[in-house]
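Final report, closing paragraph on structural work. Over the funding period we assembled a curated collection of sequence-structure pairs, and we close with a single example.
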Amino acid sequence: MCVTRSGFSRGRRATIGGLAAALLTGLACAVGPVGGDGPAQQQEQPSAGVTTRADGTTSVSEFTDDIRGAVGVAEEYWSTEFQRSGQPFRPIGRVVAYQQEGEVACAGQALPRNNAVYCPQGDFIAYDVGWAVDAFRQVGDAFIFYLLGHEYAHGVQVRLGIQYSYTIEQELQADCMAGAYIGDSVRRGKLTLEPGDLDELRDGLLAVGDEPGQPWFAEGAHGSAEQRTDAFFRGYEQSLAGCGLS
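Its predicted structure, as stored:
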């Protein structure tokens, strides 16, 4: 995806192979209590209108640009949606990258490696930077926009007071909301799809589904690969109307 404001462009598509078990098992954690204790590398929040352009490489600088671009587009998207509904919008406070287990904590609970979470206490998104860079290089930059979009959606759920009895309901809605944010941003000219971007998103979603046999009602369940893919593309195609928000 090329960006008009920020975007994914990737000249190549990586195959996912055994990535699911080895790399992406912790992706897109449920909303949980997170406190901002512990040192962390803070990503600067981009303001609306900042333009980033991925150039088809796999450099750390491109990864950083894509993280900033994804957060910036999400912030602009949700600000617009809240304004349309006549509600004030407060952007998520910060995005922090960590490298070691325990470097960032949530309400006193250390965040593990190979993970990304939104933390309501402290109002921030945190992600294992080494793991995220590996995903960026092996799956593609489009997937980084999904990752940040999913976690940002959890922050929006908190702002809207959305609560569910089961984790899987919350997670699949966040997948749908991430799809809406990407799809609507493409339709509005904020992001531009390039060949392979939708395949990157589909491959990544297939990699992060729950293990076969995981009970849907289990604490922490996110949904099967098929459920997560269906939820994302429902939002991508139908916008927020497909996510139970309008």
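The beta strands are 2-3, 41-43, 94-98, 105-106, 109-110, 116-119, 124-128, 191-192. The longest strand covers residues 94-98. We thank the funder for supporting this effort.
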